[in-house]
Amino acid sequence: MSRRLIRPAGHRVMPWKNGGGSTAEIAVEPAGGDLAQGFDWRLSIATVERDGPFSAFAGYDRTIMLIEGAGMVLDFGGGRATRIAERFRPFDFAGEDAVECRLLGGPIRDFNLMLRRASHAGEVHVVELADEPLALATDGGSMVIHCLEGAAALDGMALAEGDTLIIAEETGVLGELSGAPLGTLFVAAIFPRV
Questions:
Q1: 166, 6 contact by CB (below 8 A)
Q2: Omega into 90 within 30° of 0, i.e. cis?
Q3: Residue 180 sits in a domain of what CATH number?
């Protein structure tokens, strides 16, 4: 079992080939996985600076969430489009979908989780912590906790805004999440498909 705390200074920043933005990779599994070789899952924050197409990730399930800026419209073609203008509201789509992004009012930052569909599944929640702590438990796999806003702690391990805690290969109760005094968290349970 392992617990790994990743600070924003530890993100790997990669500019997009089309010049439309950049991606700050928070974590990728297996370690050393990349876009060319593939990966089981990947957590990142993208800065989108202008309108344009999204890269295709065939075979992956994607969750995207606005964290800064006015938002965007994702156009899937055939009259199917989704407006993403509310912060911290996850939206799921298939990585192979052809998606055109139109910004609603200047550059944005969005939070991304990608899971290899053939091997992994996940459950994603945004949790707001206030007065009551939240008991956290898992049946195995990995648990990802990212502090979107404010601060939080898991059994004494402090998370500041932008910090990510990854818990792997633990089963049962992981501890209690509490705000300090308030915290908004992205929590994802990632597990292998059987």
A1: yes
A2: no
A3: 2.60.120.10
pLDDT per residue of the chain (194 residues) written in tens, 0 to 9: 689 999 999 999 999 877 788 999 999 999 887 777 889 999 999 999 999 999 889 999 999 999 999 999 999 999 999 999 999 999 999 999 999 999 999 999 999 999 999 999 999 999 999 878 888 888 888 999 999 999 999 988 999 999 999 999 788 888 899 987 789 999 999 999 87
Q: Encoding tokens for residue 113? A: 């989780």
Query: pTM for the full model?
Result: 0.93
Amino acid identity at 12: R
Please check whether residue 29 is in contact with residue 57, taking contact to mean a CB–CB distance below 8 angstroms.
Answer: no
Query: DSSP string of 45-69?
Result: EEEE-S-EEPPP-TTEEEEEEEEES
β-pair partners for 53: 100
Q: Do both 124 and 110 map to the same domain?
A: no
Of 87, 116, 145, which residue sits at a domain end?
116
**3-class SS at 10?**
helix
C-alpha to C-alpha distances, 133 to 93, 129, 139, 182, 189, nearest whole angstrom: 31, 7, 20, 11, 18
Q: Are residues 100 and 152 in the same domain?
A: no
